[in-house]
Amino acid sequence: MVDFHQNGNIATLHNLRNRSLAEMTHELETFAQNRRMSLILPCLYSELETEAMPKILSELSQVSYLHRIIVGLDRADEAQFRHARKFFEGLNQNHMVIWNDSPRMKQLGERLDGLGLYPSEAGKGKNVWSAMGYLLGCADSEVMAIHDCDILTYDRELLARLIYPVANPNFPYQVAKGYYARIGSGKMNGRVTRLLVSPLLIALKRVIGDRDYIDYLRSFRYPLSGEFAMRTNILPDLRIPSDWGLEIGVLSEAWRNLAPKAVCQVEIADAYDHKHQDLSPEDASAGLNRMATDICKAVFRKIAADGTVFTANTFRTLKATYYRTALDLLEAYYTDAKMNGLTINRHAEEVSIELFAESLMRAGQTFLDNPHETPFIPTWNRVHSADPDFLRDMQAAALADEAEFQ
């Protein structure tokens, strides 16, 4: 995106194509001498068998400024964990593969469950939370980055641009959110951002009025990206949602804990393509159907926490306003795609909007029906307060798994 627009809410760091990767890498190597950087990779075992992960591994093996890479491995049995250990041997950095399904890790989970602190459901949120805990236990990194493991268009410049704003000691940023154009295979992608989040935020502003938080979320060009970097000193108090609201939840935590000047978004890729979720219109517990519901709940929770009162009538009005707004935006996306030689299926897009409208209502009803729901995984500060030895024992369990299953 060749522009230099700033909207005044958060800083947008563009890629104006005036710096080489080699120059940026040299600076990052200099920063790393006094400010260690680590990378977290939340990974399903199945992603090791895709075409994306070998390329990501090849690119990361050439990154010189990382102190540590932590791989959170989900849905793996013992044989698959052994294979994952061997798979990641290609990394040149100090690295750890945490087998989240190991008997030792499950035992630690039971220990937390006894204290009422165990994450309510498995998934990316729990994976990221566990990896952050391991990193906090190491106590040797000042900067942390996270990116997904299904990026088909990955190259190491993505990581360099993502981590640079937080790693640079002359910059004020404590959180950097990555953004990019979601296009691939001649199509305009990013349905959930384009057809749910953007029109939902516009509709919320029309229905409940001006809110600084809504303007803040609208400032992000791709709020659902899985790529962000942050200073590790904010991790102990970070409340991570246990569902698909992870990305919105992290932005909400940055809003809650930091001044706007400490948050930025950074352009990290010219084009970005990854695994696409099914719409799953027949199953509200799967695919984009569930994702849309969880994202709506995350937004509603945050706005309610700031004092807004939601009623059934509010959600009915919001649905109608959202639906009309989404159709208006679809027209803009359609003409944008056509002008740039991309295809867009208007019927499929409208089907998605109809599904998202139902997801919005489902999220609203769930919100009203469960006023006592605790949607966040406990912060690591709370875990440490309840069980001061937990982080140490978690590190010991990961090391023991590594030693036993060579």
From TrEMBL:
Keywords: Transferase. The keyword Transferase applies. GO terms for molecular function: transferase activity. This is Glycosyl transferase. It comes from Sulfitobacter albidus.
